[in-house]
Design a protein that fits this description.
- The structure is a single chain.
- The chain has 249 residues and is α+β, with helices and mostly antiparallel strands.
- The protein has 2 domains: 94 residues, Pseudouridine synthase I, catalytic domain, N-terminal subdomain (Alpha-Beta Plaits), CATH 3.30.70.580; 139 residues, Alpha-Beta Plaits (2-Layer Sandwich).
- The chain is built from 5 helices and 10 strands.
- Strands 1, 2, 3, 4, 5, 6, 7, 8, 9 and 10 form a 10-stranded mixed β-sheet that branches.
- Strand 8 and strand 9 form a beta hairpin.
- The chain is globular and about 60 Å long.
- The mean pLDDT is 95.
């Protein structure tokens, strides 16, 4: 018998203590904890699908997941009961019923990631879990110029992380920009696209930060892109600064 309904959840989490989104044997994951709690509430096995599989230490302000169930509990019970049982670093923000054909990953039209940078001689104890601390001056104009070369459809092999299982390295970036925030010294690199390769955003950030530090000209980012060689790009930026910020449908 087919499930009575498909549920879409919006979930936020601090990924610091987790080995990433996806269930794996070597540590606790967001998916495993969420499935465990939902199964407890619904009294049936639950398998959730996510819009994006965040890596170990990466956070989400707005992750979207979907799952099928038999409809034994109302949506309010799923939200309130889930948050009562989940650890405080995972929250269900909302729940809604969607068509049975809905797929959180396949139907997403845009995903936006934000990578936070804290530019200051001394790190902040309040931001150290959520931003990459850079104590030396950073040329944000060069960072912006470097990002501009990545907008559009490209082969992102140079920014593809080890272990990536995507069939094609071609992805489309809609926007890539630097944003300022109310906290002095806090900036973010905002990258929005149709989809991303493993470690792609963190590799992009590491590369444009190198341009901002003067390690290479901003124009060199285009040469790195054309090289289609991961060793040509910069360091993989730490996971703690990265957030899955928004998913659009």
């Amino acid at each position: 018998m087919s499930p009575l309904r498909r549920i879409k959840l919006t979930v936020a989490y601090d990924g610091t203590a987790y080995a990433g989104w996806q269930v794996q044997p070597n540590g606790p994951t967001i998916q495993a904890k969420l499935e465990e709690v939902l199964a407890q509430i619904l009294q049936e096995p639950v398998r959730v699908r996510a819009a994006g599989r965040t890596d170990a230490g990466v956070h989400a302000r707005e992750q979207v997941v979907d799952f099928a169930d038999a409809g034994a509990r109302d949506l309010g019970t799923i939200v309130h009961g889930g948050n009562a049982l989940l650890p405080p670093d995972i929250r269900i923000l909302s729940a809604g019923e969607v068509p049975e054909t809905f797929d959180a990953m396949r139907h997403a039209t845009e995903k936006e990631y934000r990578y936070f940078l804290y530019l200051s001689p001394v790190d902040s104890p309040f931001l150290s879990r959520y931003a990459w601390h850079i104590e030396k001056p950073l040329d944000l104009v060069a960072v912006r110029q470097g990002l501009s070369h990545l907008v559009g459809e490209h082969d992102f092999t140079s920014f593809r992380g080890q272990g990536c299982t995507a069939k094609s390295p071609v992805r489309t970036i809609f926007r890539a920009e630097v944003a300022t925030h109310d906290v002095p010294g806090l900036f973010s690199i905002d990258v929005a696209g149709a989809g991303f390769l493993r470690h792609m955003v963190r590799n992009i950030v590491g590369t444009v930060v190198n341009a901002g530090k003067g390690k290479h000209p901003a124009e060199h980012v285009e040469e790195i892109l054309q090289a289609r060689d991961r060793s040509a790009a910069g360091v993989n930026a730490p996971p703690s600064g990265l957030f899955l910020w928004r998913v659009s449908y």
